Amino acid sequence: MIKFGTGGWRGIIGDDFTKYNISLVAQALADRMHELGQDKKPVLIGHDRRFLSKPASKWIASVLAANGIKSLLMKRSSPTPLVMHMVMKEELEYGIEVTASHNPSDYNGIKIIVEEGRDAPTEVTKDLERRITLVERYNKMDLEEAEAKGLVSYIKNPFNDYIDDILDSIDTAVIREKGPRILFNPMHGSAIYPFQVIFFSARCTLDLINDNKDAYFGGLMPAPNEETLVDLRDKVIKGHYDLGIAADGDGDRLDVIDRDGTMLSANAILVLLYYYLHEYKGLKGPVVRNLSTTHLLDRIAESFGEKCYEVPIGFKYVSAEIDRVDALIGGESSGGVTVRGNIHGKDSAYTAALFVEMMCRTGKQPTQLLKEIEDRFGHREFVEYNAELSAEKKEKLLSVFSSEQGNVPSFDVPYTRLNYIDGCKVYFPDDSYVICRPSGTENLLRFMAEAPTEEKCWTYINAWREFVDKL
Predict the structure, then answer these.
(1) Domains along the sequence of the chain with CATH
(2) Span 336-348, pLDDT tens digits
């Protein structure tokens, strides 16, 4: 059964991610477009560098063509933020990115982008799921025939406007003056070209590692974290680089390594950028974070006379809330950030450029600036742990959560409140928290905790693990 999670539909190649299932998704989208009168504009289709991504983009186009709907394809791999930008810029109804983002190499998937370049909201993906079950057969047209009929065409220079808009929003003059040396790890993904153009235009030295196409991602997850960025950290230190940057497989998330080898978490990146935009650039506005993102943002926002808004996990909720409250910035602990005026989704290239601008304007290394922030607002530790989750255990756990009866572990301190909007989040008096929630993209149970010490984080997580084991 095809189900869309927080990051689109993802499945194991050959089992779930097959030509048949891909075509069912395309047919369901065509049916929706016809019924809602959205079939006059073309669908933009991009793809990352995973196995089957490019062929899948063509299979989707052939189904749409058979339904009389035009498609715009790309001849080279494209990061997800590019597709979102083009859908927004060209005022299209839909875009598609064939990607499984940061999932293991045996996965692939489809992200649906809707008008204004946003992640498809739940009501759209639920409708597609319903329509998929009703498809008895899908239509298809030979791609050459579709091209001859003008139903399929290829975009010329698709990156230009996207890159130009990023460069226009960044103070490249201050970056040029400093000329930092950066080591970039695209993790064999699709973010290479925009990073090169942006940072070369800003007169940075940008060296690359892991830039070749590799369907196995070097045997690692294409997700930037402590485990996958060991080589980047070592090379940053040995090569005396000012900064190391890594982007995930489809180029929407990032992580950063300071020149001393310190890895800055996604939480730290979001905190740094919010602080920088407000304190150094004089920009105003609240901040949006999801359930699993640092509460340090709440303290910072309060000191600015602003508010921090909490939303469920899934970047579509972050971007929607940014619009609703006119927030300055929003993000999530998994590495996604967007700023008011940028696209309505996470974007590693824009975030990286803004981060480098921050370094150059302040004249401080990220770890120095983070210490400045923690001296004012306190230090927090964040721990994340994932465990395999069977279908049976997931059903039991969801039943516990749906009851909302306060059936949670016994902790060594009393909690102040519970939040069941996405799994279960437990809040404590000192602004610490712990979350237990099933992943929206993998068969995993995710635990996340923030507290003054790492030891305390593990105390909360282990309490949840013992609780789940007894279900």
Answers:
(1) 4-160 (3.40.120.10), 173-377 (3.40.120.10), 381-469 (3.30.310.50)
(2) 899 999 999 999 9
